[in-house]
User: Which sequence fits this backbone?
């Protein structure tokens, strides 16, 4: 089992798919990494040599922001917006949708379960 950036990569999947288990690496970045290292697309994780795994690990450490560092960076950006008191920061602080979605109906993922309002029955 290959361990890259603190994540166990599934052994029976193709390298392109396995790399996407790392937070911060999607299909495009996984394809880029494979091309940089020079691994065939159809190769499985179990077929990788130790040298290839080491090369992948080095490319990711050198060129990409992944896992804990990425999560920390994102949370610091959100904290900065909240400290500034800008519109996006206020929306984050109140737990409402940030990007202009409607909230009269919907938005239950951000707002949480509906709260009943007393005296509304008729």
Assistant:
């Amino acid at each position: 089992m290959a361990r890259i950036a603190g994540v166990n990569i599934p052994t029976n999947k193709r390298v392109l798919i396995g790399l996407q288990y790392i937070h911060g690496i999607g299909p495009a970045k996984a394809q880029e990494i494979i091309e940089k290292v020079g691994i065939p697309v159809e190769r499985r994780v179990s077929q990788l040599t130790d040298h290839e795994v080491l090369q992948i690990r080095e490319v990711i450490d050198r060129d990409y922001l992944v896992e804990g560092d990425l999560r920390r960076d994102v949370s610091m950006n959100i904290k900065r917006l909240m400290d500034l008191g800008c519109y996006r920061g206020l929306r984050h602080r109140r737990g409402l949708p940030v990007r202009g979605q409607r909230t009269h109906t919907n938005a239950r993922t951000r707002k949480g379960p509906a709260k009943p309002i007393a005296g509304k029955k008729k």
Q: What stands out?
A: DSSP finds six helices and two strands in the chain. The radius of gyration is 21 Å. Residues 67-84 form the longest helix (18 residues). The chain has a mean pLDDT of 92.
